[in-house]
Amino acid sequence: ARNAAPADRVRVRLAIADTAGQCLAGLDGLYARALEDAAADPALRASVQLRLTWKYLLLDGDPAGAREAAVEAESAAASLGDQDLMAMALTARARMGRILGDPDAEHVLARAQALESSVLTHGARSSAHILAIRHAIFDDRLAEARARLLALLPSVERAGMAEDVVEVVRSLAEAEASWGRCAMALSHARRALALSAEAGLSPGPAWYSAALAESAGGSFQRAADHARRGVRSSEEEQDQIFLCRNLHALGRVQLITGRPARAVRTLERIREQTVGRLVEDPSVLRWREDLAEALVATGDPAGAAALIAEVRPVAERLGRTSVLAALDRAHGLQLAATGDVGTAAHLLDDVITRCATLELPLEQGRTLLAAARVEHARGRPDAAAAAHRTAVGVFTRVGAAPWLALAAKTPHSQDGRRITAAAG
Length: 424
Prior knowledge:
- It is built from 22 helices and no strands.
- The chain is mostly helical.
- Among the domains are: 1-117, Serine Threonine Protein Phosphatase 5, Tetratricopeptide repeat (Alpha Horseshoe); 119-218, Serine Threonine Protein Phosphatase 5, Tetratricopeptide repeat (Alpha Horseshoe), CATH 1.25.40.
- The radius of gyration is 23 Å and the shape is elongated.
């Protein structure tokens, strides 16, 4: 290998990096030598910089550094007039721009899609097409995301790259779960887990998607178990992104199932991660609104108010509507905890309407349960019972088994007495 041509050495090193999956620790020397050998070849230099974007993001938790590497790759690709390479560089730049809260990220991504000759040219995972679908999921354009993923799946399956199939299938699981198509979410998530295990892929992403699917239509216990496995595997691979995502999935389940102190500890771990602090766009890592709710539930409404005030301006600037709805739910509970139950009830009613408009049934039902608690605190048992019945109806319609089980534990009857067959 010492006598091999520099270009051949670069290709070998990139092949080694590509087999690492999410586990990029210990490759700093490999990347440094690859950059040195690629100095005279713009195409290879761009290829190395593109790999570095993943290293900076996943291992170092440095999206700004990753964006700089993407810009370097873009410059090298432009010097060659290589449209496919340019599309990959622009895609990487758009990915980091979204994370960093750059409103120009969508324009950059549109340029990448216009240049991309095929989703499969360099792998679906790195394609502009897949990133646009991921952004649609972040933006709650779930019908669009689902349709595009289902259209893409057959060609990805025919190509036979397990990593690409997993990326599409687990994205389907997330879209279906958010949209309340619980049975389909579970089916896709289980397939993603099986394919990841069969192909020896990094399991953190599939565990995360499975945790979301289980928390929609399976069981909260399995969701927590999947998230814990995702945390462990992501810690082992030093993958900061999916460590944070799995921590959020775990903390969310802990909060929903009545363990807010554990939820606070779990969600605060995200803040301790470098990437957790640097992800500016709150739709990319959804943990702050759940931490705010957990802080209220553990007797720290002031801490919740401070966190909401920190996140809200960014969500408003970027137009993240479902993030704003979740922040308002947390704000409503914070108001109720400080005695302003009337304002809290009106705010929660508004959030319920917004979640219905966004076609987010699980978020709608979750907010209805919160409204039932607030109405009960206001001394309005009939209103509490009505909110609870509506929540049960929403969960029944979409087959949200864990939410039905949760609702059955704390229902209010028409006159405010506890009942035990609300989900029967």
